[in-house]
Specification:
The protein has 786 residues and is of the alpha+beta class. Helix content is 23%, strand content 27%. A hairpin with a 2-residue loop joins strand 17 and strand 18. Bound molecules: 2-acetamido-2-deoxy-beta-D-glucopyranose (10 copies). It comes from Dillenia turbinata.
Length: 786
């Protein structure tokens, strides 16, 4: 059976089970979720190292068997037992000699995955395509494969549609919520019609969105599938013959190709791009982007929608009631639907574990508050006055302007045609795409029409120069990771921060534009908003941000006088705000963004001392370029960098979690991690905190200037969570959603932190990153079965 070893790698950590294996001459893969229990866990890694099969536990007391990307453990591409989770970490995956695949737990309980028995000579292999296959070697027959049981993700080589031989109609069903794998509200199916067919998303059985017919490698309502700026090309094939009627896809030169149906009904691909063409939700969407036309409930106007706000409902004078439905099969979209069709409902939210709905109906007043829980509040936009004014005056004026504009552009074009270089044409093209329709303007200020779902503005170079007084040194606010930042005052009096991106990025205009739109779509209370950009010539690119009057966290935190302003309540608010912002970047935004340079100086503070993460998306802008170029310098700051990132260039959301842990410790102690000196103590704050923790005197870490404002158990909890975040092993560190649960739920028991990474390097550094993008950071041991 040594051939087995060539095909698959099984990891056995318990010798005992190995003996069992030998005696029973069956294949036993044992694995225990590493999240809960670091010891004794094992996984199965595909031959090329791309995929890993193992147990994971996204929710307390619920363990699932799944397949994920070895490089990106948060993206699960398959879940075996989504609707039958295991109650604790006693799960094992067993494949016996006749090829029966079973998840067993608690001695005697089992969930069989197949029933077709083989000859007694079988092998179970996780292929590098992400397919877990059980093959009968004697008859060379596939007994069972995970590709036959898709969950929410379609990988290259998987089929969506009907297979006549097996009688299966393959479809995807979304997760229930962001961290809840059980079957959710949305499904994606292939529905043939005539020679072609279309993709259809249903929400609890009702048609929600459809792609339009498959024509010429594309779908009408999936324009991004054929977008030339993707950097990779889709090859979607439709098979219609006696074997079946289905589609499948592949991409050229892209490592993580997938279509994933998110819990909120969006289809996201491996480049984290949304493929179905609507922003947010298919509710009352004005244009036909494939969204199904659904009759509005009588009581709802087309100008009504839900807006995500943080705050509280307070009772009004009129009739009102609230309701909590703890049905754990209800999630986000169900709650929205529930509120939408109920006439007097004015707001809703989902409980923090992602299931169950709270709704508010009748006379409630909503007030914003940064302490409140996020809620979705019904707002009605005042209807636009479409009347004689529009028809009589506005339209003729617009037509006239368009004629003048056309004439002007044409004249300008004729004049400058000769000297237009290819590069400049490209830029013109960019402008055209970004600001359509093009307005007649000569560089003062252009405004985007907002039609592309983002309200990005394009600023003229002249207006930026004027705003920043020609980038005068007096206006310089600081030096960001990618260039200097200047304060500016626009003509309308608004204050902004302008970041000049350094030229070393080597990015082309097209990439810049893609990334820009991406970060413009990242909108969260705890992220600094990008207002727009400015491009001058080929080289100079600038980002325009909202201006934060209170500078950054380090300005207060590490100054002996100013730190007094930050009492405990404010610090806790900052920790929670940063956590929310980071969670959004990691999980809730449609593009998974890894910040990579989270530190006190990148946390800006608004007038009420609410934190806003800045420099977000920068990581991605440069990250993508780096993957292609392989030569850019590493970004990040020692002291905040996780060991695996600093030493091996590997980064994941867990490296941000590490930085966040350092930040917590800095916030509670008022000291920098790097410039830390203490006699007879390890040389950095992490080490110091760890020693105090072990000695049971964590309170000594307290910033003396906090005085009495401190709440001891909250302080203790923060240090505890901070230490969990800076653990040496990335898989031990909690995710940001865990962190938020830990911080917000004061009774939740926390695991004890393991020894953190003692990282005593200083200063910033330059080095190559992505030296070895395929390195696997799990410990692998291979046993040869005989
Ligand atoms: C997890 O299971 C244990 C033991 O069955 C139980 O005591 C605990 O309350 C459960 N926790 C949750 C969050 O359900
Ligand atoms: C798992 O939980 C069950 C009860 O739900 C218990 O009988 C069993 O001993 C537990 N196993 C482990 C490994 O904790
Ligand atoms: C494998 O498991 C199935 C189902 O439990 C059983 O019927 C079969 O006999 C087992 N095969 C061997 C070789 O133990
Ligand atoms: C299992 O099948 C393979 C391929 O046919 C063969 O090489 C191997 O010897 C067989 N093993 C046993 C135990 O029959
Ligand atoms: C997808 O394309 C890549 C190369 O572009 C190829 O190596 C791979 O085998 C293809 N996968 C499938 C399932 O066709
Ligand atoms: C597959 O299922 C979808 C959704 O239920 C259905 O519309 C479609 O017709 C089915 N395909 C076949 C070939 O029956
Ligand atoms: C697309 O995929 C099909 C089947 O996998 C293959 O036959 C065809 O050559 C591919 N086309 C391109 C342009 O790669
Ligand atoms: C919970 O919600 C699901 C999905 O809407 C529904 O099918 C089920 O009947 C509900 N259960 C209860 C007890 O209301
Ligand atoms: C989710 O939380 C609510 C309370 O916030 C609880 O009633 C419900 O049982 C939880 N659901 C699950 C599946 O843990
Ligand atoms: C709450 O905040 C939102 C967005 O920041 C704003 O549009 C809204 O007017 C605010 N509402 C109140 C009552 O202040």
């Amino acid at each position: 059976m040594s051939a087995l070893n060539h095909v698959s790698k099984f990891l056995f950590l318990f010798l005992l089970e190995l003996l069992c294996f030998v005696q029973l001459s069956s294949l036993i893969v044992t694995a225990i979720s590493t999240i809960k229990n670091g010891e004794g866990s094992s996984t199965l890694v595909s031959d090329g190292g791309k995929f890993t099969l193992g147990f994971f536990s996204p929710i307390t007391n619920k363990t699932y068997l799944g397949i994920w990307y070895t490089e990106d453990t948060t993206t699960k591409v398959w879940v075996a037992n989504r609707d039958t989770p295991i109650p604790n970490n006693s799960g094992q995956l067993q494949v016996n000699a006749t090829g029966i695949v079973m998840i067993t737990y608690d001695e005697g309980n089992s969930i069989p995955l197949n029933s077709d028995e083989g000859s007694g000579n079988v092998t179970a292999t996780l292929l590098d395509s992400g397919n877990f296959v059980v093959t009968d070697l004697k008859y060379n027959r596939v007994l069972w494969e995970s590709f036959d049981f898709p969950t929410d993700t379609l990988l290259p080589g998987m089929r969506l549609g009907m297979d006549f031989k097996s009688g299966r109609n393959y479809s995807l069903t979304s997760w229930l919520s962001v961290s809840y794998p059980s079957s959710g509200a949305f499904s994606l199916t292939w529905e043939p019609s005539g020679d072609s067919g279309e993709l259809v998303i249903r929400q609890r059985g009702q048609i929600y969105w459809s792609s339009g017919a498959f024509v010429d490698q594309g779908f009408e309502h999936m324009p991004s599938l054929k977008s030339p700026s993707l950097g990779y090309q889709y090859n979607v094939s439709h098979v219609s013959n006696h074997d079946g009627n289905y589609i499948s896809f592949n991409v050229t030169n892209q490592v993580v190709a997938r279509w994933q149906l998110y819990y909120d009904g969006l289809i996201v691909d491996g480049g984290n791009r949304v493929l179905d063409d609507f922003s947010d939700f298919c509710y009352g969407y004005p244009e036909n982007n494939g969204c199904a036309h659904r009759a509005l409930p009588k009581c709802r106007g087309s100008n009504e929608k839900f807006v995500k706000l943080r705050g509280d409902f307070t009772k009004g004078k009129g009739k009102h009631y609230d309701n909590y439905d703890d049905n754990s099969s209800l999630s986000f979209s169900d709650c929205m639907e529930k509120c939408w069709i109920s006439c007097d409902c004015v707001g809703w939210t989902v409980s923090s574990n992602g299931t169950g709905c709270a709704t508010w109906s009748g006379d409630w007043k909503f007030s914003n508050s940064t302490d409140g829980v996020v809620k979705y509040v019904l707002v009605s936009e005042s209807p636009k006055k479409t009347n004689i004014w529009l028809i009589g005056i506005v339209i003729p004026v617009v037509v006239l302007l368009a004629v003048v504009c056309f004439w002007y552009l044409r004249r300008k074009w004729i004049r400058s045609q000769d000297c237009l270089t290819a590069e400049r044409r490209r830029r013109e093209q960019f402008l055209h795409e970004l600001i359509s329709p093009v307005k007649c303007d000569d560089g003062s200020e252009l405004e985007d029409s907002g039609r592309e779902g983002h309200d990005l503005r394009f600023f003229g170079y002249a207006s930026i120069m004027a705003a920043t007084e020609n980038f005068s040194s007096g206006n310089k606010l600081g030096q960001g990771g990618f260039g200097p930042v200047y304060k500016g005052k626009l003509i309308d009096g608004r204050e902004v921060a302008v970041k000049k991106l350094s030229n070393t990025s080597g990015q082309g205009i097209v990439e810049f534009k893609n990334e820009l739109i991406l970060i413009a779509k990242l909108q969260h209370l705890n992220l600094v908003r990008v207002l727009g950009c400015c491009i001058h010539g080929e080289e100079e690119k600038m980002l325009v941000y909202e201006y934060m009057p209170n500078k950054s966290l380090d300005f207060f935190l590490f100054d002996p006088m100013r730190k007094e302003i930050l009492d405990w309540k404010k610090r806790l608010n900052i920790i929670e705000g940063v956590a929310q912002g980071l969670l959004y970047l990691h999980r809730y935004s449609r593009f998974r963004v890894i910040h990579r340079d989270l530190k006190a100086s990148n946390i800006l503070l608004d007038e009420k001392m609410n934190p806003k993460i800045s420099d977000f998306g920068m990581a991605r802008i440069f990250g993508q370029n780096t993957i292609e170029a392989n030569t850019e310098r590493v970004v990040g700051t020692y002291g905040y960098m996780s060991p695996e990132y600093a030493m091996e260039g590997q980064f994941s959301i867990k490296s941000d979690v590490f930085s966040f842990g350092v930040l917590i410790l800095e916030i509670v102690s008022g000291r920098k991690n790097t410039s830390f000196y203490h006699l007879d103590r390890p040389l950095n704050l992490i080490g110091y905190a760890w020693e105090l923790w072990k000695e049971g005197v964590a309170l000594e870490l307290k910033d003396p200037s906090l005085k009495d404002s401190i709440v001891a158990n909250q302080f203790h909890r923060c240090v505890h969570v901070g230490l969990l975040c800076v653990q040496e092993n990335a898989t031990d560190r909690p995710t940001m959603s865990d962190v938020i649960a830990m911080l917000s739920n004061e009774t939740m028991p926390l695991p004890s932190p393991k020894q953190p990474a003692f990282f005593t390097g200083r200063g910033t550094t330059e080095r190559n990153q992505f030296d070895s993008p395929s390195t696997n950071n799990l410990t692998i041991s291979i046993m040869e079965a005989r």
